[in-house]
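Page 37, continued from 36.
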């Protein structure tokens, strides 16, 4: 990766959040555990059939060689199911004031948004290392697109390794346009499970509009003690009808 990894993660306040703060971890679930049943679970059989109906010449022969190889699709589905997908929101000026993110991922505004910065050196020395047991396979911004898989297959290089890489990236980093408000980025790792982060990676905690005082006290104390985080904010209603703003607090 060329830069530090800087991102937001919206969370409910529960035992899993507490464990992540205390242990400096984040969790990458398998694709089958993602909340969208279409996410990373596109019907490749049908996609290949549509691509074949549009292809011709050498491209048609190349695509057919994958479609007619039943083991390819079966192994693909099996392998994808073992991967870990960590989703987050890309840093931008709008996401903290997006009500849907707080409603869907932060317990209806009662939760938090965690801001992380993971140093490039840490990523290079751990997840990018080829001998790491849970190395990074692919990472990047999610594309929001309808029917992009057929186009990917038709335009991918006619080279086995390059074709598989292009399809893997499309498969794991594409979602329906209806999810565009998430402004999502992803890390895809060899396997699902907890990911260790360096102490200090948690830089800021933003509390939701409905976060209770007791939860604020608990999370700020844990974040200070275990993660070295000393920057906390509270989301409030702004002057606009549906505006959300963030104000620093000395909790």
């Amino acid at each position: 990766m060329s830069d530090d990894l800087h991102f937001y993660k919206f969370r409910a306040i529960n035992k899993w959040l507490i464990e992540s703060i205390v242990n400096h971890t984040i969790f990458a679930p398998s694709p089958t555990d993602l909340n969208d049943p279409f996410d990373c679970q596109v019907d490749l059989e049908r996609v290949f059939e549509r691509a074949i109906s549009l292809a011709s010449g050498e491209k048609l022969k190349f695509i057919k060689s994958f479609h007619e190889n039943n083991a390819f699709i079966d192994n693909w589905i099996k392998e994808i199911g073992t991967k870990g997908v960590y989703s987050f929101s890309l840093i931008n000026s709008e996401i903290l004031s997006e009500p849907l993110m707080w409603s869907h991922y932060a317990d209806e505004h009662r939760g938090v948004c965690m801001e992380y910065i993971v140093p490039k050196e840490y990523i290079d020395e751990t997840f990018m290392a080829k001998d790491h047991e849970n190395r990074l396979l692919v990472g990047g911004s999610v594309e929001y697109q309808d029917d992009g898989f057929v186009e990917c297959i038709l335009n991918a290089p006619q080279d086995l390794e390059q074709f598989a890489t292009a399809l893997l990236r499309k498969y794991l980093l594409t979602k329906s346009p209806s999810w565009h408000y998430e402004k999502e980025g992803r890390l895809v790792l060899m396997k699902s499970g907890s990911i260790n982060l360096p102490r200090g990676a948690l830089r800021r905690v933003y509390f939701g509009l409905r976060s209770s005082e007791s939860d604020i006290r608990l999370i700020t104390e844990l974040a200070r003690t275990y993660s070295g985080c000393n920057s906390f904010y509270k989301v409030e209603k702004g002057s606009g009808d549906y505006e959300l703003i963030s104000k620093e607090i000395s909790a």
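Residues 1-25+86-130+199-251 form one domain. Flag for discussion at group meeting. The chain has a mean pLDDT of 89.
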